[in-house]
């Protein structure tokens, strides 16, 4: 006690005595002292001692910063407290000073002040009452740039001497670590100069730390010391304060306020473990022990640590523990616990081998290549495992060898050659015939690892150059390639090895330039015999054969063109098989689907298109029309036409499938756009001629028009704006101007009537061709030039065209696609059209109760698709049009329910307005929409009146919620639940499906809010059971949805709540098992199985 | 369960697609993708329970000895199922003639079908003639109501059964 007083006074006197040579800053502060009233300062201090309010500290700091008082003043004012005999006062005194230092800008403290304060704090470390605030002060003081190097050793030795970590609480220890951390950053050289004193001192200080917050800092410190300081005398100490935490099993407490996860600790500990080679001999045994004894998580942590550490520990350590390491890793890989551990072990082994191979030791001089002895042992062990190809260990062994391929040239050539030789030998061993499939599978693994991981090489992207290792890898196979290829071809002959061989060949051709063009031709020849086979004989190989051949098609299309395609084209008859010739139909479809898959390559696709359009031309008229035998006068009826139409449909479908594959690639094929000038006019001619013919034509069939429409969409999607401009001007003059030849490539046989599909009196066949017109508009680019002035007129005409009495649903759908696409892409060009909608169309049709309900329903549907087109681009008119739908619902109108469903449709994703179709889509439009309409709907739906209006609002609610992501309304579920359950009582199957879907979607997300679900669980069980009975609910979609929901409940509701219903549910579901629909029965089986397993 | 009756069974590939054929493949339709707009409430279009459907119910039951399904081991197949008027006969083939697991496999098929078929069906389960050394005993045991009921009272047996059935219905 006595000691402290003079020391403290000494400190003050030193600072005063030093004034003379410290400099102007201190001088100016001294000047201020005389002019500053000390009373204010003292008042703040007194008040803080009483209240401990942060505001008092801030006052003092701001006074200090503004120069109203100086540090010296504060020390003076604190004087009596700093030296008080009373423990609490002393603690608080130091605490006050530390808090001021903490808040005071560090750069303003000068060297002298820092020195004085540091010395002062060091003395305070001896006092158990003041050690905490003193450490706090120090932890901030050391951040001052003015801290002198000479202060550091004193400060640290004071800390090492007086700070007993075990006696301090976590926050105080945290100050210690922070102090050292700051010093390491700013005064690393001074610490190094302290040498062992610091290194040993810190090790003693850090030992035994347990708190995760402190450890994060401690690990960072340890990492720096281990890498930058000489710890040779204290390796064991540092090993103890780092490795004792490994593996980290810390699990943060629930609601952890500090947010330190086990992963944070792991990632800060790992750099310590791998910081120095000196840990090698101590660390590896520990790792091995953890690896053998640990849980899967520990195993993975250990493996990860080893992968990082082994390269640092170096080859001599790796070799010293080599056999043990290998046997431990071998166990993990050959008998894997789980895939993740397996993968981690493989990575570690790879690192291990890399380390050994970086400095190989070769004892046996006879070996030609310089492989490390230990690595050779590893390889030999793996090869031995491969020697028994039917065992799972063989696969693991192969996996190991494959992972070595990138390590070193000598190693990989040895591994590949040995493994291939071994497999080829086993394959040809007559005793091992039964193991041939496994041999080929192993070989395929090897080939796959030799092939580059990305997509198969394309001719325009040559095989080499990518990375240094690629050319190297392909050379590895060169010595054994012939044997391997021969083996795979032999494998094709037997049914059991056929599929593996096909996979092997697929892997082989992926290896850059491994096989020559001639060899590819040989492969094609051998494989092609399985292409046309009956599926009964070779059912499982067809898809593998086709995928192999289509990858060869990319490398060498000519082989396919000459060997595979001709027989397939021959399998396509010129005339459609008769109605009862089922097997011929299956045959042509098999040929078509094979062709469709094989002909994606531009060269082959061209042939494909030509051959198929020729077939289509032949099918144009249903009966053979030779000049000698003119067709009979009575035109064949539609029934005779059907087989021909079905055949044409199959051909077009094959074409569309190939196009779709070509266009949907991440880099669409460049040859597709040219078909806008060839294929499309041809198809238009076929369809439009059929539409104006006076007899029944194959191409008038609406099913054919649908596929042609699909082809048109795909080709337009791929075409650039320039060709689209040309195409659309032709299309418009054909459909709107009657110049039909402008879209059919100049050729057209007028058979009877003019082509005027948009006329009011047009025939259904002509009107159907609008499907093609619409298909072209859907993917139209935004910048295609259209007559902007007449656009509004055109759209209005289209609406009138739809309201014609003979408009079919497909025609109406097509028209709505055109409207949606054009309105979305050209909303700014059509103000007149929007006016027309809101005035004329609204009052004359949509809101006109004198016209038939059916017409108005259709009008609402059109209205909705136009509104959606505006909504997705956040056009201001969208909400005006939406409001009109609310008017229909509010009025309890006949079309109120349609309007309600339309509200949901507005937020539903569709196939027309997509990015791929170049529609204008604003982000978050659905959220904005929901924010605008949901409150209105909720409010109206909650008013229980039983009226039509209220029911319509329930419909709107269900369809809107069903259309938007559940996150948007999940929080409101407790409020929505009663409404939804009420909605399940309404007689509208679509509504019920919507509601059950909403309940299904929210059932798993409701885990936090299970209470709301629990309340209604029993009601839900009963209502779902009712909805799953065919007698009660004729609509199978509702039954399926209800059963799916029932199947979910056992997973989310506590058993005791639903226990009373189990018997009834099982009994009722037993009846549902006899449902007439297979899809319903399937769900019933699933639900019933779940309920059987549902127990307490 | 200590003795493994067949330590190294042959594993066959599962048929990749669903066995059910499209109307085009069965010759009912001329059109390759005949997806007509269905009338969801149409009651006339009844799809009766058939071989494939029953096979779908049992194909993915796990073998008690191996981590494979009965289909992969070719213990059951669609051809070995016969459907008559309210009578279903399921035949199964043990992987080896001395397989002590046969009754357990049969029992798991029976329990699965008990839970998944409408109660109007009578189900007969038999081992394929000549495929098991105690064929008669196994058949007798599997089709004796009392003995099946008694087996299901045994908690240890039921637990093993549930393990086999846990994978049933899963479509990988």
Automatic annotation (TrEMBL), chain A:
<dbReference type="InterPro" id="IPR039920">
    <property type="entry name" value="MMS19"/>
</dbReference>
<dbReference type="GO" id="GO:0016226">
    <property type="term" value="P:iron-sulfur cluster assembly"/>
</dbReference>
<dbReference type="InterPro" id="IPR016024">
    <property type="entry name" value="ARM-type_fold"/>
</dbReference>
<dbReference type="GO" id="GO:0006281">
    <property type="term" value="P:DNA repair"/>
</dbReference>
<dbReference type="InterPro" id="IPR011989">
    <property type="entry name" value="ARM-like"/>
</dbReference>
<comment type="similarity">
    <text>Belongs to the MET18/MMS19 family.</text>
</comment>
<dbReference type="InterPro" id="IPR029240">
    <property type="entry name" value="MMS19_N"/>
</dbReference>
<feature type="domain" description="MMS19 C-terminal">
    <location>
        <begin position="592"/>
        <end position="1050"/>
    </location>
</feature>
<keyword id="KW-0234">DNA repair</keyword>
<dbReference type="InterPro" id="IPR024687">
    <property type="entry name" value="MMS19_C"/>
</dbReference>
<dbReference type="Pfam" id="PF14500">
    <property type="entry name" value="MMS19_N"/>
</dbReference>
<dbReference type="GO" id="GO:0051604">
    <property type="term" value="P:protein maturation"/>
</dbReference>
<keyword id="KW-0227">DNA damage</keyword>
<protein>
    <recommendedName>
        <fullName>MMS19 nucleotide excision repair protein</fullName>
    </recommendedName>
</protein>
<dbReference type="Pfam" id="PF12460">
    <property type="entry name" value="MMS19_C"/>
</dbReference>
<comment type="function">
    <text>Key component of the cytosolic iron-sulfur protein assembly (CIA) complex, a multiprotein complex that mediates the incorporation of iron-sulfur cluster into apoproteins specifically involved in DNA metabolism and genomic integrity. In the CIA complex, MMS19 acts as an adapter between early-acting CIA components and a subset of cellular target iron-sulfur proteins.</text>
</comment>
<keyword id="KW-0677">Repeat</keyword>
<dbReference type="GO" id="GO:0005634">
    <property type="term" value="C:nucleus"/>
</dbReference>
<dbReference type="GO" id="GO:0097361">
    <property type="term" value="C:cytosolic [4Fe-4S] assembly targeting complex"/>
</dbReference>
<keyword id="KW-0539">Nucleus</keyword>
<feature type="domain" description="MMS19 N-terminal">
    <location>
        <begin position="75"/>
        <end position="335"/>
    </location>
</feature>
From TrEMBL, chain B:
<dbReference type="GO" id="GO:1990229">
    <property type="term" value="C:iron-sulfur cluster assembly complex"/>
</dbReference>
<dbReference type="GO" id="GO:0140535">
    <property type="term" value="C:intracellular protein-containing complex"/>
</dbReference>
<dbReference type="GO" id="GO:0051604">
    <property type="term" value="P:protein maturation"/>
</dbReference>
<dbReference type="GO" id="GO:0007059">
    <property type="term" value="P:chromosome segregation"/>
</dbReference>
<protein>
    <recommendedName>
        <fullName>MIP18 family-like domain-containing protein</fullName>
    </recommendedName>
</protein>
<dbReference type="InterPro" id="IPR039796">
    <property type="entry name" value="MIP18"/>
</dbReference>
<comment type="similarity">
    <text>Belongs to the MIP18 family.</text>
</comment>
<keyword id="KW-0159">Chromosome partition</keyword>
<dbReference type="InterPro" id="IPR002744">
    <property type="entry name" value="MIP18-like"/>
</dbReference>
<dbReference type="InterPro" id="IPR034904">
    <property type="entry name" value="FSCA_dom_sf"/>
</dbReference>
<feature type="domain" description="MIP18 family-like">
    <location>
        <begin position="52"/>
        <end position="122"/>
    </location>
</feature>
<dbReference type="Pfam" id="PF01883">
    <property type="entry name" value="FeS_assembly_P"/>
</dbReference>
């Amino acid at each position: 006690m006595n000691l402290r007083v003079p020391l403290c006074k000494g400190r003050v006197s030193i600072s005063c005595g030093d004034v003379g040579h410290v400099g102007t800053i201190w001088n100016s502060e001294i000047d201020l002292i005389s002019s500053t009233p000390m009373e204010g300062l003292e008042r703040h201090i007194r008040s803080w001692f009483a209240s401990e309010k942060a505001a008092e500290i801030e006052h003092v700091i701001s006074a200090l910063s503004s120069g109203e008082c100086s540090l010296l003043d504060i020390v003076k004012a604190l004087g009596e407290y700093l030296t008080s005999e009373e423990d609490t006062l002393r603690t608080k005194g130091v605490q006050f000073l530390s808090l001021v230092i903490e808040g005071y800008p560090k750069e303003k403290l000068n060297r002298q002040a820092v020195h004085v304060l540091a010395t002062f704090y060091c003395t305070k470390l001896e006092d158990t009452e003041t050690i905490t605030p003193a450490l706090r002060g120090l932890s901030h003081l050391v951040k001052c740039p003015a801290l002198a190097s000479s202060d550091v050793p004193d400060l640290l030795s004071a800390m090492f001497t007086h700070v007993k970590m075990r006696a301090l609480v976590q926050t105080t220890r945290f100050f210690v670590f922070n102090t050292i951390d700051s010093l390491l950053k700013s005064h690393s050289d001074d610490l190094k100069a302290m040498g062992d004193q610091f290194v040993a001192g810190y090790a003693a200080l850090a030992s035994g730390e347990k708190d995760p917050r402190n450890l994060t800092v401690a690990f960072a410190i340890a990492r720096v010391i281990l890498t930058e300081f000489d710890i040779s005398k204290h390796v064991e100490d540092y090993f103890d304060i780092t490795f004792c935490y490994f593996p980290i099993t810390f699990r943060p407490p629930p609601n952890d306020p500090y947010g330190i996860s086990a992963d944070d600790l792991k990632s800060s500990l790992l750099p310590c473990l791998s910081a120095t080679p000196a840990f090698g001999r101590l660390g590896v045994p520990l790792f091995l022990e953890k690896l053998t004894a640990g849980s899967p998580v520990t195993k993975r942590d250990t493996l990860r640590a080893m992968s990082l550490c082994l390269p640092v520990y170096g080859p001599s350590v790796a070799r010293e523990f080599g056999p043990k390491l290998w046997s431990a890793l071998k166990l993990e890989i050959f008998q894997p616990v789980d895939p993740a551990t397996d993968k981690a072990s493989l990575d570690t082994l790879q690192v291990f081998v890399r380390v050994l191979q970086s400095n190989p030791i070769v004892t046996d001089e006879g070996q030609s290549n310089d492989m490390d002895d230990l690595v050779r042992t590893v390889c030999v062990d793996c090869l031995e495992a491969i020697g028994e190809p039917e065992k799972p260990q063989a696969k693991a062994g192969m996996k190991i060898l494959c992972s070595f391929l990138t390590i070193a040239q000598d190693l990989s050539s040895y591994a590949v050659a040995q493994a291939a030789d071994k497999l080829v030998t086993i394959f040809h061993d007559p005793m091992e015939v039964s193991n041939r499939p496994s041999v080929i599978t192993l070989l395929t693994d090897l080939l796959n690892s030799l092939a580059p991981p990305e997509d198969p090489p394309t001719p325009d992207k040559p095989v080499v150059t990518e990375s240094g290792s690629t050319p190297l890898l392909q050379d590895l196979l060169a010595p054994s390639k012939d044997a391997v290829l021969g083996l795979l071809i032999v494998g094709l002959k037997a049914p059991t090895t056929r599929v593996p061989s096909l996979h092997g060949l697929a892997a082989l051709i992926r290896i850059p330039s491994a096989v020559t063009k001639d060899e590819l031709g040989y492969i094609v020849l051998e494989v092609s015999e399985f292409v046309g086979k009956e599926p009964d004989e070779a059912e499982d190989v067809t898809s593998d054969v086709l995928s192999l051949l289509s990858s060869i098609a990319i490398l060498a299309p000519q082989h396919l063109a000459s060997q595979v395609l001709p027989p397939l084209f021959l399998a396509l008859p010129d005339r459609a098989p008769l109605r009862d010739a089922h097997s011929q139909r299956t045959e042509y479809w098999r040929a078509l689907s094979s062709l469709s898959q094989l002909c994606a390559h531009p060269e082959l696709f061209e042939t494909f298109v030509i051959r198929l359009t020729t077939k289509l031309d032949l099918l144009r008229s249903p009966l053979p029309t030779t000049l000698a035998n003119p067709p009979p006068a009575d035109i064949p009826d539609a029934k005779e036409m059907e087989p021909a139409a079905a055949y044409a449909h199959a051909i077009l479908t094959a074409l569309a499938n190939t196009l779709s594959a070509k266009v949907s690639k991440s880099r669409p094929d460049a040859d597709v756009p040219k078909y806008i000038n060839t294929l499309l006019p041809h198809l238009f001619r076929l369809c439009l001629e059929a539409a104006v013919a006076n007899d029944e034509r194959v191409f008038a069939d609406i099913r054919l028009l649908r596929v042609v429409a699909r082809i048109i969409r795909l080709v337009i999607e791929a075409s650039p704006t320039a060709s689209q401009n040309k195409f659309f001007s032709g299309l418009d003059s054909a459909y709107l101007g009657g110049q039909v030849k402008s879209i059919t490539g100049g050729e057209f046989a007028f058979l009877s009537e003019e082509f005027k599909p948009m006329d009011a009196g047009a025939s259904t066949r002509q009107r159907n061709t609008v499907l093609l017109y619409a298909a072209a508009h859907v993917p139209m680019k935004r910048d295609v030039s259209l007559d902007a002035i007449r656009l509004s007129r055109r759209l209005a005409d289209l609406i009138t065209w739809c309201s014609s009495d003979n408009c079919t649903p497909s025609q109406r759908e097509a028209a709505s696609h055109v409207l949606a696409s054009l309105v979305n892409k050209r909303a700014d060009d059509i103000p007149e059209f929007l006016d027309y909608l809101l005035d004329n169309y609204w009052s004359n049709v949509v809101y006109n109760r004198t016209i038939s309900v059916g017409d108005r329903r259709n009008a609402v549907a059109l209205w909705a698709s136009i509104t959606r087109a505006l909504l997705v681009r956040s056009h201001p008119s969208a909400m005006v049009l939406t409001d009109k739908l609310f008017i229909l619902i509010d009025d309890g109108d006949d079309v109120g329910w349609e309007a309600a469903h339309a509200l949901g449709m507005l937020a539903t994703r569709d196939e027309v307005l997509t990015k791929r179709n170049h529609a204008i889509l604003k982000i978050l439009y659905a959220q904005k929409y929901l924010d605008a309409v949901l409150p209105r709907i909720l409010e109206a739906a909650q008013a229980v009146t039983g009226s039509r209006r209220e029911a319509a609002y329930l419909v709107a609610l269900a369809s809107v919620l069903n259309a938007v992501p559940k996150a948007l309304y999940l929080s409101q579920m407790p409020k929505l639940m009663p409404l939804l359950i009420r909605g399940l009582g309404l007689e509208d199957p679509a509504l019920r499906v919507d509601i059950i879907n909403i309940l299904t979607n929210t059932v798993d997300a409701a885990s936090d809010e299970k209470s709301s679900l629990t309340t209604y669980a029993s009601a839900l069980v009963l209502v779902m059971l009712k909805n799953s009975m065919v007698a009660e609910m004729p609509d199978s979609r509702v039954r399926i949805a209800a059963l799916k929901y029932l199947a979910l409940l056992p997973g989310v509701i506590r058993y005791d709540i639903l226990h009373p219903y189990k018997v009834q549910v099982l009994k009722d579901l037993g009846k549902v098992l006899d449902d007439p629909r297979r899809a319903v029965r399937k769900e019933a089986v699933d639900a019933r199985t779940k309920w059987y397993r549902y127990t307490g | 369960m200590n003795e493994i009756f067949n330590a190294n069974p042959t594993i066959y590939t599962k048929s990749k697609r669903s066995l059910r054929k499209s109307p085009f493949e069965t010759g009912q339709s001329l059109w390759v993708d005949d997806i007509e707009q269905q009338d969801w409430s149409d009651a006339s279009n009844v799809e009766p329970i058939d071989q494939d459907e029953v096979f779908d119910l049992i194909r993915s039951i796990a073998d008690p000895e191996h981590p494979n399904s009965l289909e992969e081991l070719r213990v059951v197949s669609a051809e070995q199922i016969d459907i008559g008027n309210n009578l279903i006969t399921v035949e199964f083939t043990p992987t080896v003639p001395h397989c002590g697991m046969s009754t357990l496999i049969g029992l798991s098929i029976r329990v699965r079908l008990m839970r998944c078929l409408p109660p109007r069906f009578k189900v007969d389960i038999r081992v394929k003639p000549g495929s098991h050394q105690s064929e008669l005993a196994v058949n007798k045991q599997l089709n004796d109501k009392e003995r099946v009921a008694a087996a299901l009272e045994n908690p240890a047996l039921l637990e093993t059964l549930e393990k086999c059935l846990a994978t049933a219905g899963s479509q990988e």
